[in-house]
Design goal:
The protein is an alpha+beta fold. About 25% of the residues lie in helices and about 20% in strands. It is built from 6 helices and 11 strands. The chain has a 6-stranded antiparallel sheet with strand order 1-6-8-11-5-2, with helices on both faces. A 3-stranded antiparallel sheet has the order 7-10-9, with no helix packed on it. It has a two-stranded antiparallel ribbon with strand order 3-4. Strand 3 (about 60) and strand 4 (about 65) form a beta hairpin. Helix 2 packs across helix 4. The longest helix is centred in the first third of the chain and has 13 residues, at about 75-90. It starts with a helix and ends with a helix. About 45% of the residues are buried.
Length: about 250
C-alpha cells in the first residue's frame, strides 16, 4: 500500500492521446460558471484511495445502489488550463492528492472558477514555504478537516513528470528521482516532504508553489462511520485518473 501511495507506483502516466482527445472534443467556455453535483464515482474513487490508508467510507450501498454525498466540481476554465499545461510543458504523469479544510475552505474553492487561491496560503502553516499543501494519502488531511466527518477532504490530481520521480529528497537510499540524487530543479514547482504518519522517513505530503498543477476534482464527503482498513485493490486507485478527468469534463457540456 505504501508503494502505491508514496512510492514509484504513485506516479501514473497521462496518455498523450487522452489529452489530445479531451482538448479536441470539448469546448471549454470561460463564460461557464463553476458547477457542482453529487457524484457516486468520486465517492468510489475516494473510498478506493482511502482503502490504502485509513479506510474511510464515502458511500453506502443498498441493494446494489451506491449512495453518497461527495461532490464533483466542474470548472471548465481550470480543467482546460490543467490539460493545456500537461501538454505544453510535457507533464506526462499525475498523482492523487487530498486537502483538508473547514467550511470556508471547501465553500470558497467550490465557488472559485480556478479553485485554489494563493491569497489564502499560510493559514495552515508555511513550514516548507508559501504554497498549497496536500497529503499523498488520507493520513495528513484528516488533521486539517474541521466541522465535517473525519476523512472529508478535497481530492485532486497533481501534474508531475517521470523525471521528477515521487520524492524530492533521498529516503532510505530509495530516491524518488529516477536519475538524480537530489531534486533541486523540480522542487521549484513543488516539493514532497515527510511527516511522522503513517511511515517515518517516507515523503507523504507535498507543497505546490504553482497552483495550476492541481485539478480539484471535488469534495470527498466521508461517511460518519468508524474506518475499516481494507486490503489494497489489485490496481492502484490512481489508475482511474483519466476516467475522473473525463467524467468532470463531460458534466460541463
Amino acid at each position: 500500500a505504501n508503494e502505491i501511495l508514496f512510492g514509484q507506483r504513485s506516479v501514473i502516466p497521462l496518455d498523450d492521446a487522452f489529452l489530445d482527445t479531451m482538448l479536441r472534443e470539448h469546448n471549454f467556455s470561460v463564460n461557464v460558471e463553476p458547477m457542482h453535483e453529487i457524484d457516486e464515482q468520486l465517492a468510489e474513487l475516494a473510498e478506493l484511495f482511502s482503502s490504502l490508508g485509513s479506510g474511510f467510507s464515502y458511500a453506502t450501498r443498498d441493494g446494489g445502489k451506491v449512495k453518497a454525498r461527495s461532490e464533483k466540481w466542474v470548472k471548465p476554465t481550470v480543467l482546460r488550463l490543467w490539460l493545456e499545461l500537461a501538454r505544453a510543458r510535457k507533464y506526462t504523469h499525475c498523482r492523487l492528492v487530498m486537502h483538508g479544510g473547514d467550511k470556508k475552505t471547501y465553500d470558497g474553492i467550490r465557488a472559485d472558477r480556478i479553485g485554489f487561491d494563493l491569497r489564502y496560503v499560510g493559514e495552515q502553516g508555511t513550514a516548507h514555504g508559501s504554497g498549497l499543501y496536500f497529503g499523498l494519502s488520507d493520513h495528513v488531511p484528516v488533521f486539517y478537516n474541521k466541522g465535517f466527518p473525519t476523512g472529508t477532504a478535497i481530492i485532486g490530481l497533481m501534474l508531475t513528470k517521470e523525471i521528477m520521480g515521487w520524492s524530492s529528497e533521498a529516503r532510505g537510499n530509495k530516491h524518488g528521482g529516477f536519475s538524480t540524487t537530489r531534486d533541486q530543479t523540480w522542487s521549484k514547482s513543488h516539493k514532497t516532504f515527510s511527516l511522522a504518519a503513517p511511515v517515518a522517513d517516507m515523503d507523504n505530503a507535498v507543497v505546490l508553489y504553482e497552483p495550476a498543477l492541481v485539478l480539484p476534482l471535488g469534495l470527498a464527503f466521508a461517511h460518519p462511520a468508524k474506518p475499516t482498513r481494507q486490503l489494497p485493490p489489485a490496481a492502484p486507485p490512481v489508475a482511474t485518473a483519466a476516467a475522473a478527468v473525463a467524467t468532470v469534463a463531460s458534466a460541463a457540456f
